[in-house]
Sequence to fold (246 residues):
Amino acid sequence: MKKEISWLLKEKYNNKPDKNFDRDVERLKAGEPVDYVIGFTEFLGCKIDLSKKPLIPRPETEYWVGEAIKEVSRVFSDRKKYGFSALDIFSGSGCIGISLLKNIPSLLCDFADKDKKAVEQIKLNLKINKVRGRVIQSDIFLNIKSKYDFIFANPPYIPTTRKNKIQKSVLKFEPKEALFGGRDGLYYINKFFKEAKNHLNPGGIIFMEFDYIQKKNIEKLVKKYNYNSFEFKKDQYGKWRLVMIK
Ligand SMILES: C[S@@+](CC[C@H](N)C(=O)[O-])C[C@H]1O[C@@H](n2cnc3c(N)ncnc32)[C@H](O)[C@@H]1O
Fold:
């Protein structure tokens, strides 16, 4: 708590607490995540506003997106093509697509989320970070008409059967629709794989995050939907976290 209070003091109040500070400390004491109380977080050098309470971007996501940026930049220099397109689907705060746009200025990026509040949040974060992108309210691919060179996805993947393993503050404060993916956590992942290939340009790449306990099932689904070339990657803690499909 001490660490969080000093973080709040520094980040939100610039070490000069005003009349709202005590109220914010009460919010922390009630278990609210410090990022919501501060109101924003940092993600690969981007300021991500959290005022509409989307999922708080996680360090594991920041790690693989950092690696993905390197991969995408490599593809750019290999193919010497300009104006590659990307889709950040299940985009929440928009942290993935916004950090891509910030780091790869010639990329075009669409964002898709089912939640109206997430759509507003993404638009706000695009403005704050001075980048442009199209934001589409969509139930997975339902309203997505285009094809892309890169698709980035961090779907809700926690199995409802593991609800008791989730931190209380996460359950109380973060949006449930961003967390749970049915009994086995694969409900959205299955739907995503079924459709994603229809939205991928030839030579395109899919990056999708999952929970390390799902690796075997992810492999089964990737094969079931006839994706030929795929590679699993670990996160910074040594756990399987990402599948990259070419
Ligand atoms: C795990 S969060 C990922 C947020 C963000 N991309 C990140 O990495 O921090 C999943 C997001 O999927 C959205 N979502 C849930 N069901 C959806 C659906 N059927 N279609 C599109 N988006 C959905 C939620 O609103 C939430 O913003």
